Amino acid sequence: MRRELSRRDFLKASGALVVSFSATSTFAPLAAAQGPFDTHASHVDPLKLDSWLAVASDGTVTAYTGKCDLGQGMQTVQTQLVAEELCVSLGWVKLIQCDTSVTPDQGTTSGSQSTPTNFNARNLAQAAATAREALIGMAAETLGVPIDQLAAKDGIISSKGGSRLSYGELIGGKQFNLPVNPAAKRRSPREWTVLGQPVPSMDRVALVTGTFEFVHNVHVPGMVHGRVVRPPQAGATVANVDERSVERVPGLIKVVVRKNFVGVVAEKQWQAAQAAKQLKVEWKPGPVLPPQADFYSFIRKQPSRDFMLVDSKDVDAKLKSAARVVKAVYSYPYQAHGSIGSSCAVADVRADRATIWSPTQSVYPTQHGISMLTGLPLESVRVIFVRGSGCYGLNAADTVSYDAALLSQAAGKPVRVQLTRHDEFISENYGSACVIEQQVGVDASGSITAWDCTSWSVSLGGRPGYETPGNVITGMLAGFEPETITPRTAVEPSGELRNGSNAVPSYVAGCVSGKCGGGGSVRSERVLTRAVKSPFFTGPLRSPLRLQNTFAHECFMDEIGARVKADPVAYRLKHLSDPRLMDVVKAAAKTANWDARPSPKRGNRRTGVAKGRGVACVAYEGDNGYAALVAEVEVDQATGRVKPTRFVVALDCGPISNPDGLRNQAEGGILQGMSRALGEEITWDDHQVTSIDWRTYHSLPLGIEPPLIESVLIDRPDAKATGAGETAITLAAAAIGNAIFDATGARIRQVPFTTERVKAALSAHGAPKSRSAQTLQTIASLTKPSSLE
Amino acid sequence: MPAIPLKVNGNGHTVDVDPATPLLYVLSDELQLRGPKFGCGLAQCGACTVIVQGRAVRSCVMPVSAVTGREVTTLEGIGTAEKPHLIQEAFIDEGASQCGFCLSGVILTAKALLDENPRASEEQIRQAMSGVLCRCFTHARMVRAIRLYQSRRA
User: What ipTM does the predicted assembly reach?
Assistant: First the structure.
């Protein structure tokens, strides 16, 4: 059973209760009179040291973070961080994650930003460093010893003369009452004893023995069960709800209708499931969906919101004067987050306050959304993060939190909502479908002289943020509008290069306002992005757009290299200038024993199983992590089955906080990327999504023969810390696609590489050159495609 | 509603629920066990797996009435943090988890297979695991952990 704990309770538990607190110990009502720690949002002031840390009289440390562990290891590595900076052992630190009543507002745990946010020059790391310096300062005063004669270790400050004071003796039970000092000296990675170690993830024993508390396991007193009834079609609206259709369902408490939001509440989960199934709802159909078969052409005909990211203004001229021009078009489907557990949340909405136990990545934005949905004042809504199953981005975690809040408010009881698998597949915000058109000019020596790229992505809704609950399905059904695309022609790029979506290929100079922030040497460059309205909700899915764009750039780079008969690794290095990106490419190639030669591999037969290797690399978001991946695959040319057999990944994320956690993320990322590359695709018919379970949405099961994965970690103690959870996955589709080409000479420009698509590409490759199927993949080059002759 | 007797992880219970209630809901709601989890409700992913008399079954589609009088074991029933089962120990040693939501399916499916057939071939293990999903794709470590368990239990 859970009970509400206030920050005050936490501080009390950690021994750092401050005497100035009022006598009121409960969370609500949240009046200003309750003092700084119970007045909510503003009370957790990130500029104050006490917002981040408390030291108890026994010397144990409670730390507060706004970045949560979604299964990616953030709890372990942030605990290491606090222990390292405070010079205490790991077991002394208790980390409290993401609770609007007790942790600072750090927005959303997303975008590979947790490490940059909390490990560089601000926030959690800086607070811990500030605390260490403050404790040493206090010891200096107490002992009458100069600071430089003191050292902190294991929670004890000792002088060279042998005096000792523990942290508990110095501060235990009291607040620091200090600002976070931006100049506090961080411990150098060269001195690290806790960070940098392969500390096993701290949750693993509880997970493996089945005692870990997921949000699915939250029970609160008086809790009942809710289910939602989603529109069967995108855009359908409620015409009528026949409550009598469920009046005989035992345990039914309430049928809830709010605009187009429909749900049921019952005493038990099974009863709620029965009621949701039996409730008769008449829906007014939504618009007919664009046919999936033509969707990629459809996208390109829609009005778009355009951004010109770079434009050197000489691209057309350079293309005209090029010795040859190479063109290709890539397409990428909608994909699901497809969390293994359908999303779940528990809400207790009362007349004057609400508490939500939520798997959201964004407790504060979700607090705002629930305030808007329930009409309760912001400060009366508390959102407590409890881990759900891995989300990989905006799965249905936020929307199910809204579901629970709406049902609890209507039922007047705490309600737990469990989505069904079907609900999950039609409720989440899919990763965006994309079409990416590429063309380059190549000179007589085979160097790229101009790069021209236009990428289309689709968008509807997204993260709700603080103000847009309509960005996920429940908010929209309850009457809030989603953000959509307002068409706009591109304006000239200005300021700095914006490459957060990796729309700009690594190989161009990336010059904006005279400053070149790109990773490569091609100076004639034009990159246009065009966002169009999506028929389905979309949102960030692990490596959002960066994966889609990188698939297109890295496959295309391979195509160009093949056209000029260059080795794919050497050809990349020739056009790169970013030393960190070049280093990961070299490291991956070296460890993989890269067979340096042009692709495709000569001498491979056109029948049976063909083997090949491919490479891809990325500077994630331009500068937030570097990775290169070599894939080795076997292609069964009779069945079209692609079997990756080996991956070698090289990673550079600055100073490595936890090499084991990094490897785990890289291994999982590569295989998740492989599953997305080989089988995952949202499908639909005229009215509805048809990929609604694990028979219709294809995730690689544990029964596959896992490929060998080797990770090469490049530690850079003097660099800034970058993200690391999304770099490896970004490369899987491209590296596999390039390896298929190497093995067979067939280029597949559309994800996923299903057996049918592979067979079609193989037969197209084998067929005579003038073929209409290749219209979208026009080859305007003067030379014919490389072949196996 | 009839009172249904159950034996779960060695303990006797009586629950008052519709006999058609999926075993999973009884385990997680009535008994508040955390091991078996709702993944799909369709027996397609494995997250709800429990062991019933030596066999791995999907508790999300098994009516509670079907296990009356039979021994049900969940992930928390095979070992504890202090004294993990050999297969749990293998997963801990290999660091074979990310979000960990799938572990009932992964561990109990492998355990049921290897307890029945300790010399299962790699192909037989793959076959058994072919209906189990891990969406964090911790496959490589999990397969290593399963093999480690197989070698340690020998």
Answer: 0.99
